[in-house]
């Protein structure tokens, strides 16, 4: 079992930066592909970013490319989402997710592929 806890959300103004953290407890996440999703009010949960468990491969949704960076520290059992140049449309609850993967370089985009989820952290960006 892997428990995931997000932190780092909060209030920001357009153009600001925030860094989300996802701390894992229980088993190591070294064999887990990890991802970030978000859900805005009245909208479905959407993919934001993913990283392979090697950390070598990452993926981003188009709307955050060039602004967000996902990274991981397997020794610390943490995954990060650095969010720069925030926009009001980034306002959402952000969720960390993980799934065991035999493939060191694989990442996952669909939320149905993930097994473990955190409770989410709210990010609110004002204009």
Q: Which shape, going by the Cα principal axes?
A: globular
Give the number of helices: 0
Radius of gyration: 13 Å
Termini gap: 40 Å
Write the element-wise H/E pattern from the N-terminal end onward: EEEEEEEEEEE
Q: What number is the mean pLDDT?
A: 96
Main sheet properties:
7 strands, mixed
Q: Give the proportion of residues in helices.
A: under 10%
Low-confidence stretches: none
Fraction in beta strands: over 45%
**Annotation, overall tally of beta strands:** 11
Helix and strand content put the structural class at mainly beta
Walk me through this protein's architecture:
The chain has strands at 2-7, 10-13, 18-26, 32-39, 46-51, 58-60, 68-73, 78-83, 92-100, 116-117, 121-126. The protein is mostly beta strands and 127 residues long. Strand 5 and strand 6 (58-60) form a beta hairpin. The model has no long low-confidence stretch (mean pLDDT 96).
Structural topology:
Blueprint: E1 2-7, E2 10-13, E3 18-26, E4 32-39, E5 46-51, E6 58-60, E7 68-73, E8 78-83, E9 92-100, E10 116-117, E11 121-126
Parallel strand pairs: 2-11
Antiparallel strand pairs: 1-3, 3-8, 4-5, 4-9, 5-6, 7-8, 9-10, 9-11
Short description:
The chain has no helices and eleven strands. The chain is mainly beta and 127 residues long.
